[in-house]
Design brief:
This protein is an all-alpha fold. The chain contains 6 helices and no strands. Helix 1 packs antiparallel against helix 2 and helix 2 runs antiparallel to helix 3.
Length: about 190
């Protein structure tokens, strides 16, 4: 059963990767890439690392959604839906990608993979976390709080007024002082 799921996710990931280079709009390419990378997260999960698989899926979904939102908001063409091509130097890129694919497949079969020794750990999530963080856990926790404080501080400094400033100190200014009307009520 696991092998069938692994094969299906691999085929879907590959199909999504092909769609990235065959779709003719940035919006479609974004969602094809998201689907492909979600399948990669599924492959990682099936291979026994559910924490990393879920993290991959969450990261890719959020990244692609943000990319789609920015395309809709800022691209010159409507929402990235105008026809375009993701391929430049088609012959050269085909030769390079084919050579890289053949080299990677050859490396998979030529590499002397280590033999399995012992049983897998009971909690793979803990083992991955320990391997990734090791001695740096306190540093990463502090860094996370510093980044959060920086984002909140930047947001506070970027807004010149608070949520209720337009209603006055006692929230009795009616109608509200909106900057659109020059800061003066009617």
């Amino acid at each position: 059963m696991q092998l069938a799921v692994l094969a299906a996710l691999g085929v879907l990931a590959l199909a999504g990767g092909v769609l990235v280079f065959t779709c003719n709009s940035m919006a479609r390419v974004t969602f094809a890439l998201m689907g492909s990378l979600c399948c990669v997260g599924g492959v990682v999960t099936v291979l026994g690392l559910p924490y990393l698989g879920v993290v991959i899926v969450l990261m890719m979904v959020m990244e692609m959604v943000v990319m789609a939102v920015f395309m809709i908001a800022y691209m010159m063409n409507p929402a990235g839906l105008m026809p375009m091509s993701m391929l430049h130097n088609k012959r050269g890129s085909l030769v390079v990608s084919g050579a890289v694919f053949v080299a990677l497949v050859t490396a998979v079969f030529v590499t002397p993979w280590p033999a399995k020794v012992g049983e897998p750990p009971a909690d793979t999530t803990f083992q991955v976390g320990k391997a990734l963080m090791g001695e740096q856990m306190l540093t990463m926790v502090v860094l996370g709080f510093v980044l959060l404080a920086t984002m909140v501080g930047a947001t506070v400094l970027a807004t010149h007024r608070g949520r209720y400033d337009r209603f006055g100190d006692d929230l009795d200014q009616r109608p509200a002082r909106d900057p659109v009307r020059g800061g003066v009520g009617r």
